[in-house]
Amino acid sequence: MSPPTGSWPLRRPLRVIRLLGLALVLLTCQGERPGPTPADREGVLEELARRGAAIQSAVAGDPGCPDPGLTGNALRVTLLLPGDSTPRQLYLFVFRHRSAFEAAADAVTACARALAAGEAIAVSPYRALVPGGSEAALQFVRESLVAVAGDGGVPRGRDGRPLPTPQATPLPTATPGG
What we know:
Elements: H1 8-28, H2 41-50, E1 54-60, E2 74-80, E3 88-94, H3 98-103, H4 105-115, E4 119-123, E5 126-129, H5 135-148, E6 169-170
Antiparallel strand pairs: 1-2, 2-3, 3-5, 4-5, 4-6
Helix pairs in contact: 2-5
């Protein structure tokens, strides 16, 4: 049986060109994909709840200390953590840019001192304070923030490898008589 006459000889090269074009498009889409985006305040609250915390209230603009520079980034959350019978305050600070996150380190540390929070949790783009929080409470909040930080809270270097994992920043303690 012979192929139909007319346009058949033209179909084969056209099909090859289409397949080559499709292959080229697919190959160009294989580049490096951007990393995930960090969650906003609502995303953080959702992650805390997903992990078992009961959110009792949330007040935007309350940094827990008299620093007006932190007000726009602050969220005070009253929550009950799993296995805990006492509601706790969580002061969450969300920053849009890494430079703002880094620039606010001293202000958040001063706020932690004013609240007697003991330890500031720093997982870019978040900083958090849990006054009177146990190590388990701090770990719960830290793990929740890492989960929603987009890139795991670990910015990548130019070579694509993760930089060192962020750690909670213990506050310096005052020495007696000093």
